[in-house]
Every structure is written in C-alpha cells, then in structure tokens.
Write a structure and sequence with these properties.
Length: 215
C-alpha cells in the first residue's frame, strides 16, 4: 500500500486546527447585556427584588421552610446575581463608552468641517468686501453725481458771468468808440470852424476889385 504524501501547506491559507471554539454574536450578546443592565438599574427591579426577598424570608420562617440553614441559599442566590450583574453592567458601560467615543469623534469631525466652512465663508466675505470696495456703490454714485452737478452749475455760472462780462465789455467798447467818434466829429467841426475863420480873415484883407475897372 502506497504511503500518502502530505499535502503542501500554503502560506496564504490558514492551518486547520482541532475543534472549533463556540461562536457567538458579540453584538447580540452586548444588546442583551445592555437590556439586562438597563433593567437592573430601574425601580421596578428593586421592587421585584424586595418582594422576592420578603417572600423568601416569610416562607422560610414558617414550618414549610426550604432554606433552613440561616438563609444560606438566599445568600448564594444574591451573590450569584451580584456576580453576574457587575460584569453585565461593566459590559454595558463599555459599549456606552465606545458609542460616546464614536459620537465624540463624529462631533469633532463635524466641528472641524464647520470650522473649515466658517473659515471658507470668512474668506469669501473678505473677498466680497474687497470686491465691493472696488465697485461703485450707491453712495459713491450719488457723491459723483452731486460733484458733477455742482461742477456743471459752476461752469454755467462762469459762462453766464463771461457772457455778461463780454456784453459789458462790448457795451463799454461801443461807448468808447462812440465817444471817440464824437470827439473826432468835434475835432473836425473845430477844424472847419478854424478854417472858416481863417478864410474869412483872408477875404477881408484882400483889395476889392470891381467889374468896371476890369473892363
């Protein structure tokens, strides 16, 4: 009979071991433990526990007692209940701590995102302020229009004053020319008078010659 050759063991394949360990769902066990721990921390459990202990004591002080050894079995039950309650409560606390840690991490991530969003919005608002500083606003336009209106009014007044001054200068020039013409006419009249007087003087000084003598 030929011997069986051993199967080649691959490094990427886990080795088969003996009997498998019992497997349970940690999440389901944790949920059950939290329910039990939540029930242990309620007033209903205290009431139920108190009624049970009173019933146990009342039954065991009567002739039908089933725990005659100074309530040794009751003490064992209470110890057993406490020994299981403590790990269940610790397990529930650990799960709650894990949830709190995850919630804290999510809150921290949310806070980081919010801070990043706030910083982004702050930069956007700053850029908008800078852009608005370069854009003509309503007040700026009003000021510019007011200045332009004042400048136009001032120029119109200047033009009116210039026209009035030109008219005044023209009237003054006409008056001056009129005075000069009058003075010139006076001079001419005076010259004509002088000439007439000189002619008259010259006519009186010459001898009178008649026509008979010429004949």
């Amino acid at each position: 009979m030929a011997e069986r050759t051993p199967r080649r063991v691959r490094l990427d394949t886990p080795m088969e071991r003996g009997a498998r360990r019992p497997h349970y769902d940690p999440e389901a066990f944790g949920r059950v433990s939290e329910r039990i721990a939540r029930f242990l921390g309620t007033a209903r459990f205290l009431v139920y526990m108190t009624v049970f202990i009173i019933f146990w004591i009342v039954i065991n002080v009567t002739p039908i007692a089933f725990d005659p050894y100074t309530f040794t079995f009751l003490t064992l039950l209470l110890s057993l209940q406490a020994s299981y309650a403590a790990p269940l409560i610790l397990l529930a606390q650990n799960r709650q701590a894990d949830r709190d840690r995850i919630s804290l991490e999510e809150d921290r991530a949310t806070s980081d995102r919010l801070q990043a969003d706030v910083e982004y919005l702050t930069r956007e608002v700053a850029s908008l302020r800078q852009a608005l500083g370069e854009v003509a606003t309503r007040e700026y336009l009003r000021d510019q229009l007011r200045e332009m209106t004042e400048e136009v009014v001032a120029r119109a007044r200047t033009v009116e004053l210039s026209a009035e001054q030109a008219q005044h200068d023209h009237a003054a020039t006409r008056k001056r020319e009129e005075r000069e013409r009058r003075a010139e006419r006076k001079k001419r009249r005076a010259g004509l008078r002088v000439e007439e007087q000189s002619v008259a003087k010259a006519g009186l000084g010459e001898p009178f010659v008649g026509e008979d003598e010429s004949d």
